[in-house]
Write a structure and sequence with these properties.
Distance between the termini: 44 Å
Strand content: 5-15%
Strand order of the largest sheet: 3-4-5-6-7-8-9-10
CATH class of one domain: Alpha Beta
Helix content: 25-40%
Largest sheet: 8 strands, parallel, barrel
Order of helices and strands: EEEHEHEHEHEHEHEHHHHEHH
CATH superfamily of one domain: NADP-dependent oxidoreductase domain
């Protein structure tokens, strides 16, 4: 396993890291989730990504339970969580205001059974709260030792610019990392976000690097009834004939250099030095063991050119990054 710095900070994380979105504390049996986490650490992964909203705290509890037997040293791990989405019907129990963040971090630390977390991500941008209020409470949490670093997730280039400028004006801790959607089929961060974040010394911990399984060839012959896509309308929309054809051609490229399509997709992401890590999901230890091998893959210029010809795509803004799409009437 190779490691990279998170932007210009002193924090180092594994190029392939493991996330708990959708799976742990929910669809994956607890013991299997812990086996996946064990496989991850034993393969060299040191970054475990989570969020309070993942199974309404269930994913954080799985991490705590996994670490409770002290087989692995917490000090060797980088643990993250996120705040933004509603955890209850309470009018102040969502967003990036001082009250919600203060309550949320206490809940996260209690569920994780930890005194601090390494990275606290702002899970979306909050249009309802002054950014200054968010930056100030995060600075307070870092100074109090409850959080080591803070970051953003799915923020636009303009929002990142403003957050860094405001933190500088306030002499507060700046965000060190952005966590965006990024993979071969969704390249929007190459438009502006990547260059702005780099300018401010931010790294990237990208999610859905395998497009929720699409870039593994899992759906080449259709959508199995027991698959994630069968229950997700959004994912079904991505499983188009055009994308399946691309995956099939990419599979042939991967075979030509004796790696899997998944490893090719992860290595393609890691071709960019701005990327700190690709966050994988895993429902079985074998998935972890296969994906971590991408850290040892370096794609030649010839292979990268072949990939570009197959992809033939220009970066564009996906729905999930359009302002205000996630606000309900109750949240306004």
């Amino acid at each position: 396993m190779k490691y990279r710095k998170v932007g210009k900070s002193g924090l180092k994380i594994s190029e392939i890291s493991i996330g708990t979105w959708i799976t742990y504390g929910g669809t994956v049996e607890d013991e299997m989730a812990k086996k996946c986490l064990a496989a991850a650490i034993e393969s060299g992964i040191n970054f475990i990504d989570s969020a309070e909203i993942y199974e309404k705290g269930g994913a954080e509890k799985i991490i705590a339970d996994f670490l409770s037997d002290e087989t692995y040293d917490r000090k060797d791990l980088v643990i993250s969580s996120k705040v933004f989405w509603p955890m209850s019907e309470g009018i102040n129990n969502w967003g990036l205001g001082r009250k919600n963040i203060s309550n949320a971090i206490e809940g996260t630390l209690k569920r994780l059974n930890m005194d601090y977390i390494d990275i606290y991500f702002m899970h979306r941008y909050d249009y309802m709260t002054p950014l200054r209020e968010t930056v100030e409470i995060l600075d307070d949490l870092i100074r109090a030792g409850k959080v080591r670093y803070w970051g953003t997730s799915a923020w636009t280039a303009a929002q990142l610019e403003r957050a860094n400028a405001l933190a500088k004006d306030l002499r507060a801790h700046k965000p060190i990392v952005e966590q965006p959607l990024y993979n071969m089929l969704f390249r929007h961060i190459e438009m502006e976000i990547m260059s702005v974040a780099k300018t401010h010394g931010m790294g990237f911990t990208v999610w859905s690097p395998l497009a929720q399984g699409l870039l593994t060839g899992k759906y080449n012959e259709g959508i199995p009834e027991d698959s994630r896509a069968f229950k997700s309308e959004m994912l079904k929309k991505r499983i188009t004939e055009e994308n399946i054809e691309k995956v099939k051609k990419l599979t042939e490229i991967a075979k030509s250099i004796d790696i899997t399509i998944g490893q090719l997709a992860l290595a393609w992401i890691l071709r960019r030095p701005e990327i700190s890590c690709a966050i994988i999901g895993a429902t079985k230890p074998e998935h972890v063991n296969e994906n971590v091998k991408a850290s040892d893959v370096t794609l030649s210029n010839d292979i990268l050119n072949q990939i570009d010809i197959v992809l033939d795509n220009e970066p564009e803004w996906p729905l999930t990054y359009k302002p205000n799409y996630y606000y309900t009437d109750k949240m306004r």
